[in-house]
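Justification of computing resources. Each target in the renewal requires a structure prediction run like the one illustrated here; the chain below, 175 residues long, is used simply to show the kind of job we budget for.
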Amino acid sequence: MTTRIVLIGAESTGKSTLAEALATAKDLPRTHEFVRTYAAALDRPLQEADLDRIARGQLAEEDRHGDVPVVLHDTNLLSTLIYARHYFGVEQAWLEEAFAARHYAVYLFCQPDIPWVADPGQREGPQARAQLHGLFEAELRRRSLPCVRIRGDRDVRLRAALAALDHPERAPPIP
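Resulting structure tokens:
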């Protein structure tokens, strides 16, 4: 069974940068955030009608490495669920079921304590990041998911994440 490690958090919290650093440091496969590629290919803003394709694309991205011992996920279906609710006010029952059927060993919850960086077409702004951070925290808490808060500069973040990878079973839920 594959041990799945998820980097999660609001926009511009260093998830992709940390995922790349971890993958390099531990020589691990990693998956990317499907919606990023999907949204970049569109000539329009995302719409509710895109949610199904985004969710299915994220599932395929999470599964693309097959049965490997450990894989890093630069986000997962939980982000898709949160964003669907936040931006479109919708719940997707099939997506909740798909999420519930998967096991993720630990969530590396990237904190918004680094400078916000604009990414046109992908990010709203620092105020949205703060609001979304609260939504992610509430969801991790509500679901009692094993979680390690990742904060600080790049080196501090990498050390904390590496320690979490060494012992994912020690990560408690957010109180």
